[in-house]
Amino acid sequence: MSEKDSASTIKPQIKQILAHLSKKPGVYQMLDKEGETLYVGKAKNLSNRVKSYFTKQHQSPKTELLVTYIEDIHTTVTETETEALLLENNLIKKYKPRFNVIFRDDKSYPFVFLSSGDYPRLAYHRGAKKEKGDYFGPFPSTSAVRQSLSLMQKVFQIRQCEDSYFANRSRPCLQYQIKRCTAPCVNYISKEDYAKDVENIRLFYRGKSDQVISRLQKKMDKASENLEFELAARYRDQIKQMRHVMQQQVISGTASDLDMVGVAYASGTCCILLVFIRNGMIVGNKTYYPKVPKHSDLDEIISSFLTFYYLSGAEVPKQVFLEKMPEDSKAISEALSQHKQSKVSLKVASRGQTKEWQEFANKNAQHSLRAKLNSKSNFTKRLLELQKALQLESMPKHVECFDISHTQGNQTVGSCVVFDENGPKKSDYRIFNISGVEPGDDYAAMEQVLTRRYKRLKDEEKSLPDLVIVDGGKGQLAKAEDVFNQLDITNVPLIGVSKGSDRKVGMEQIWFPGQHRPLLLDEDSKALHFIQHIRDESHRFAITKHRHQRKKSGTKSLLEEIPGVGAKRRQSLLRHFGGWQEIEKASAKDIAKAPGISLSIAQKIYDYLHS
């Protein structure tokens, strides 16, 4: 449709509005015939932006649908794009328009509180900061604070009881008996020694864990020299616990406050996971599942999250790291800086430690999304939609999906994943090691997997699935048909799933036996979401098992094969970590802590073990 044709279909009242729009920055509200707000947006140039909804070719399906409902447009002119962004955020929270990405609001965040006085207490705090003392945080959740307090009790044994309870004790409580408190209430520890433990806690929460460990090591050495072995053992245990925490939480080389934003989007569901790093230490993470209108792009979702979250009362750090920068990142950065009253930078984590933590955030977002998709409430609706879309006689309660994985044709494996009405049934997952086929021949590999799977089920007289899905197009489906014909399986529906010509998610093609044209489901179809989910799970399972096979076949000489790792370094690694499994679990930074291992060598070892 040309711009002229498009303009001729615009409603008369909308034409009148478009003719008198300002070219200044501002906010626009799209309204329906009842006066309800459908969508709120911001613009550098209101006239150009609003007109683009009605004249621009190749609009997204979301925009096309929105335009059909628009009966009125309200605009508010602002002086700057930053002001527009702030107003947009407030209006979205007020009206919750159905075509905007909507997040649930969170107002209050918990802190760790260290009181003032001769014997300070360490406690959980939420709300106004009225008491004198130090507040560390904010933490993303109550559980994160409780976990942190438990750690401090074990390491430094600082009291957590209320002041009224503390003042009226005549003998130690149970916390002293289980070595969670040094009993300052009955003077079992001097003010000076207690103050040292308190100072260590302050250093820990300010990201100076190395200083704490250095102090503890000196005390341990001194206690050993004085033959105070029980005290030395206590310091040794504290050091061990601190090292364990640092290995999991500390980012080397930075004491900055920053947040990492991880995003995962699949099967019509979005997960945003925020990792909080304060004073160089992870204090937890928080997960959001926004209500995303269909056809929303990732850029809009990220932009909406940043404005919603940081302008809703959350602490704004100096830096926010993202995998991809949204188009309006400059305006968002200015708005957050104005809100914080100091500079806030949006950055893409492109290398080094921040990239590792960006990958950590993304992986956890994907894990959380998978858990969300696997929830029971989603599955019945999706299976019913699947029955309708595929025109099945009944709702499929047992679905199996197959995928093939290999490395340049070698070590080929096939996966079978099973979903029932409750979601993935992992106890029924199966992996097949492929042999006797030409390297890279996925058709023959698929034929072998299906033959082995269903010949065995028939021989053992076990029930067959209600639906079988193969990952692939007409070629894989034809092989599956041959197997079913050879085994005389006639009552099990069979489909193939391919990604289409441009391989975009949401454009999957569903192939049926004997048909030359695929079925294309709507991008927001629950049936398509189910097919995407089980296909992705079969692919994940195949890849995971395939990597395991590669590692298993090379464990006898893995370290020996790494360039730059000789006998001395292998010995150093094994002595430092105590065994092969611990080396495999360690990060590159942790590997570099072994004597004689530089960071560059550590990175080579890590990359090799995780390739």
UniProtKB/TrEMBL annotation:
Domain of life, source organism: Bacteria
InterPro entries hit by this protein: GIY-YIG_endonuc, GIY-YIG_endonuc_sf, GIY-YIG_UvrC_Cho, Hlx-hairpin-Hlx_DNA-bd_motif, RuvA_2-like, UVR_dom, UVR_dom_sf, UvrABC_protein_C
UvrC family homology region profile domain location: 260-484
Gene3D superfamilies to which the protein is assigned, alphabetical: 5' to 3' exonuclease, C-terminal subdomain, GIY-YIG endonuclease, UVR domain, UvrC, RNAse H endonuclease domain
Domain GIY-YIG: 23-101
Domain UVR: 210-245
Keyword Cytoplasm set for record: yes
Keyword line: Cytoplasm, DNA damage, DNA excision, DNA repair, Excision nuclease, SOS response
Record function comment: The UvrABC repair system catalyzes the recognition and processing of DNA lesions. UvrC both incises the 5' and 3' sides of the lesion. The N-terminal half is responsible for the 3' incision and the C-terminal half is responsible for the 5' incision.
NCBIfam families, alphabetized: PRK00558.1-5, uvrC
Record localization: Cytoplasm
Record-given protein name: UvrABC system protein C
Lineage: Bacteria, Pseudomonadati, Pseudomonadota, Gammaproteobacteria, Kangiellales
A Pfam family reported for this protein in Swiss-Prot or TrEMBL: HHH_5
UniProt record similarity statement: Belongs to the UvrC family.
Predominant localisation class: cytoplasm
Subunit structure: Interacts with UvrB in an incision complex.
Gene responsible for this protein: uvrC
PANTHER family reported in the protein's UniProt record: UVRABC SYSTEM PROTEIN C (PTHR30562:SF1), UVRC/OXIDOREDUCTASE (PTHR30562)
